[in-house]
Specification:
The chain is 44% helix and 8% strand. The chain contains 16 helices and eleven strands. Strands 1-2-3 form a three-stranded antiparallel beta sheet. Strand 4 and strand 5 form a beta hairpin. It is globular, with a radius of gyration of 24 Å. Bound molecules: 2-acetamido-2-deoxy-beta-D-glucopyranose (NAG) (2 copies). The site of one 2-acetamido-2-deoxy-beta-D-glucopyranose has 5 residues, from strand 5. One 2-acetamido-2-deoxy-beta-D-glucopyranose binds next to strand 5. One of its GO terms (molecular function) is alpha,alpha-trehalase activity. Keywords: Signal.
């Protein structure tokens, strides 16, 4: 489905519970064929990134938010904006010149979405939090409930009319945004939004939001990290099936379920593709499928390019920079962003190794996805599909128990792949098998295993 990266399965022998003291240097890698700059949408992104770096130069790093610039809707055609940018006097662009250029050629950030009154909003819905009796707590809960009105949006008509002027992606339904500098829909944030909307009895809004994500799966084959053209090369913790399940349980809406179902199968294929699936052999010779995060990107993230480039500046080779950018984007896919959980050296961002880690939470989400799909398939009479997803979930359960469970610590631990994976089958050679494991709750307990 994706031209990238080259298919490879890691065959990794695994020996658990033999402590050694041995730090490792894992080669951060994964072959990433980066070609983003040749595609259509990236022309706009390239222009906005030029604006972003000129703005950094003119305004200075203090309170600088690179995302602001790639979110700006163009008020003129890209060619006119590009020419105007080129004609600004260099090298010393003043703050005044920069600000005048921005207000002349761009519409305000956030104007690509317009307010949308959620029709299913009621000031105090029937059956709202029946167990909350305390008057003060109820009043506060109703205040929180009222925030839906501030966060509900719809894509502005101009986005559909002139998509070449906007990085926001046109979504069919209403959206609820996280707010402040996050002016667009996000994937796993939407899970919590949906849970909240169900508490607020706003079933239609919850369905709209979920169907927007279904639209992504239909269009791109997976659910994007968020609704911007700079989020098309990574996903986020896969919780679409959980949203569908929670909505189905609250409403019993079979039409909605059937509408979403094919997209869940599509999304599952994405997570089972070579990008994310890793075959791991345990020390009994059994091969397990487990999943990792891995973005399809090896350049600075456009929304944080100036920051990513700053970190990469201490790396000397282009290859090392690309590997770092690949890990940064993969870490964004994890939804955790820049926790020391993903770093070989917790004080050094450039040691991010996310795509070499089999995370407990991701595999638990996918296990749940498999169980949810098995349940939905049974409901709609697809019994063969249901059985195969039940089997897949049982296999993943065993994989999690075999590879991630540490009985000494009575804890599931992330598994660090001991190699960058170019298809070689590792032996149980101790020197090849050294790896470290960081507990999955992000605390920095280093356990050394071979
Ligand atoms: C980025 O994503 C787009 C759309 O999903 C795809 O067409 C493109 O090939 C991807 N780029 C890379 C470098 O994989
Ligand atoms: C692992 O995935 C491969 C490819 O999808 C599949 O053929 C194989 O049966 C799976 N193995 C297990 C143990 O689930």
């Amino acid at each position: 489905m994706f031209p990238f990266p080259h298919p490879h399965q890691l065959h990794v022998s695994l020996v658990i519970f033999v402590p050694v003291v041995c730090a490792i240097h894992m080669a951060p890698a994964a072959a990433v064929a980066g070609v983003g700059s040749e595609e259509g949408a990236p022309a706009l992104l390239r222009l906005l990134q030029r604006v972003q770096s000129e703005a950094l130069r003119a305004l200075g790093p203090r309170d600088f938010d690179p995302k602001f610039y790639v979110d700006l809707p163009l008020a003129a055609d890209a060619s006119a904006v590009g020419a105007a940018l080129s004609s600004l006097t260099r090298p010393a662009l003043s703050r005044e010149v920069m600000e005048a250029f921005i207000s002349r050629y761009f519409a305000p950030a956030g104007s690509d979405l317009v307010a949308a009154d959620p029709l299913d909003f009621e000031d105090e819905p029937r059956g709202f939090l029946p167990k909350v009796e305390n008057a003060e707590a109820r009043a506060w809960a109703l205040e929180v409930h009222a925030l839906w009105k501030d966060l509900a949006r719809r894509v502005a008509p101009d986005v559909v009319a002139r998509p070449d002027r906007h990085t926001i992606l046109p979504l069919p339904g209403r959206v609820v945004v996280p707010g402040s500098r996050f002016r667009e829909v996000y994937y796993w944030d939407s899970y919590w939004v949906v849970r909240g909307l169900l508490v607020s009895k706003m079933y239609d809004t919850a369905k709209d939001i979920t169907l927007n994500l279904v639209y992504f799966a239909e269009k791109y084959g997976f659910v994007l990290n968020g609704a911007r053209s700079y989020y098309t090369n990574r996903s986020q913790p896969p919780l679409l099936s959980s949203m569908v399940l929670d909505i189905y349980m609250a409403t019993g809406d079979m039409v909605f379920l059937k509408r979403a179902f094919p997209s869940l199968l599509k999304e599952y294929s994405f997570w089972m593709s070579d990008i994310h699936n890793v075959a791991i052999m345990d020390n009994h010779g059994r091969v397990h499928n487990l999943s990792r995060y891995q973005a399809m990107w090896n350049k600075p993230r456009p929304e944080s390019a100036t920051i990513d480039e700053e970190f990469a500046s201490k790396l000397t080779s282009t290859a090392a920079k690309e590997k770092f950018y690949h890990q940064v984007a993969s870490t964004a896919e994890s939804g955790w962003d820049f926790s020391s959980r993903w770093m070989r050296d917790s004080t050094d961002m450039t040691t991010l190794a996310t795509s070499h880690i089999i995370p407990v939470d991701l595999n638990t989400f996918i296990l749940k996805m498999e169980q949810d799909i098995a349940f939905f398939a049974e409901l709609i009479g697809e019994n063969t599909v249901s059985e195969s997803f039940s089997e897949a979930s049982n296999a993943r359960y065993n994989a999690i128990e075999s590879v991630l469970w540490n009985s000494d610590m009575e804890q599931w631990l992330d598994y660090w792949l001991p190699t960058d994976g170019n298809g070689q089958v590792l032996t149980k050679d101790i020197s090849l098998m050294s790896y470290n494991v960081i507990v999955s709750n992000g605390a920095n307990t280093l356990i050394l295993l071979t």
